[in-house]
User: Fold Dihydropyrimidinase from Zhenpiania hominis.
Amino acid sequence: MDLLIKGGTVVTAQSSFKADVAVKNGKITGIGANLKPEKNTEVVDAKGKLVLPGAIDGHTHLAMPFGGTISTDDYYAGTRSAACGGTTTVFDFVLQGQGEPMLDAIKRRDALAAPDAAVDYAFHIGVGDVTTDEMLDTMEDAMAYGVTSFKVFMVYDFGVDDGQFFKTLVKAKEIGALVGVHAENRDVNNVLIAQYLAEGKTDAWWHYMSKNEAVEGEADVRAINLAKMAGTSLYIVHLANKQGMDAVTEARDQGYPIFAETCPQYLYFTSKVYKDGIPEQNLRARDFVCSPPMKGKESQDALWEGIKRGDISTVATDHCPFTKAEKDWGITQKDGTPGNFTTIPNGCAGIENMYPYILSEANKGRISFNKAVELCATNPSKLFGLDHLKGALQIGLDADIVIYDPKKVFTITNDAMHGDTDHTIWEGAKLKGYPEATYSRGNLVYKDGKFLGKRGDGKFIKCKPIKLKTPQL
Ligand code: URP
Ligand code: ZN
Ligand code: ZN
Ligand code: ZN
Assistant:
């Protein structure tokens, strides 16, 4: 035994109980009362603490080319930041280029990730070209390589049309893959953009208005219908609106394998931030520009209800940070010409905030700690074909473990974060409880505010094929 975490309360998706956790060679080897250390075992006292599985962030964009720049956190900064927030696995998006076979795209990205990642990582494909059967068939090579989930974009110029989306779903059914979708109505979005710009409406509020509740909700409903037609499962990423939430719930109640992810930013902020920002924290409205945008209170309440009912399966971050200077392109573009809400790179930082925020909400009594573990660790591992390795405290699984101090009071500041971004939309948020230590395959990678891991220690994790026939998660 290398490590023995003693006297804590172990939290799984099902239950919480006092137990010691033993680790050897990076795996969990024992969970039980009064486990005895061996001669060279390091013993960690976890009395009064919770012992949790490391979180799996199912949605990150590290070093991603987007909006005329590259997201600020590379694989090192992003995974370092993840580790310090209790996240031990990240699913990053490989954006497939036009005419690029998916396996080539995976290897292109893995060449960046492998030397840099400080915690384990897996990939989803961001589908960039399924315009030919030849390209569509390259999904099979991705599957064979251990990348088993594919995200299509209904919005953005590189996104799919409904026919390509449908073909992707049919192919996924055939090969045991999961299709994720970024659902927003591109055509309506484009019409509204043109209209607002013609009217001289250029600030961040109009980003929200051009991607409002109905623009997202319509696409959610359509995506679910396409999945029903194809007879397969669907994972709606970053769900942020009530109409979509209701459609997910209805489909699940009918027995369809439809799954939804939401993000902490939709659970905490509302569209109000696009009016004023948060002046007392020096956050401007444009700092909050991401897609989909935060929605009104009614949608936020619907998301929380969806979590409590079990109709939201996962929480992930959509971590995609840009600097304040890049956000300023909404005022003046790189070339000096006036900017507008469409010239602001889309995305915000959040990789270090997900688990602490969701656990804090649990600690405040909004959901159970078991629910927090289910949303942030256990369900993503099952949905993405990773539960043979990760996502739970269970003998035989990787020793990805977080020791959580429920008594610690923590105020988020960018200074205390471990990424490379120069601001955080979470500045000033007050949390009840905070991770004290993070172990990645038994190695201490974070303790008391300090990153202790190593660049390059994270490994590429192969996912299994996914066969979800009912809304079981
Ligand atoms: O604003 C966001 N989310 N940027 C990243 C790309 C995406 O759509 O997930
Ligand atoms: Zn997206
Ligand atoms: Zn239901
Ligand atoms: Zn995203």
